[in-house]
Amino acid sequence: MLSSLVRDVADFPEPGIIFKDISPLLADHRGFSAVIEALADCGRDGDGTVVVDKVVGIEARGFILAAPVALSLGTGFVPVRKVGKLPGPTHQETYALEYGEATLEIHQDAFQAGERALVIDDVLATGGTVNATRLLLERCGATVAGVAVLIELGFLGGREALRPLDLSALMTA
Asked: Which residues are catalytic?
């Protein structure tokens, strides 16, 4: 069902890239609700106990998924943003994308030492964005308890690049 709510857009944002557009999924209440609950389950143990202190959303579509996951888990939400979007002192990390380079940042005071985070994003490609986020969290004194994505592009090797992080993907393309 979920795969029918994600459409492929060829040559976006660069020629040769097939963009996974989740807009139809977000517009479908049942599909969106199912995704949020499945992602929230990644922040619980087998008994349903919440095992994370905060949920991290990676700009921009990760925000759309992570904020309701945080509400479902009863935790706080922490945004990881593109450079220049957060006020105050931040940590920054530059990383390679499959079609360029980018820099992410997080507020330096986003976590207390030892807090555990569930990192949420829409698509896992090469793993560069999630790895940069992991490094940012470590600078804040936090640890990544798990990573949950809506779509994993398995052919790009992101899962292998993120080992030994616990990674859950709702769909694989």
From this structure: 61, 98
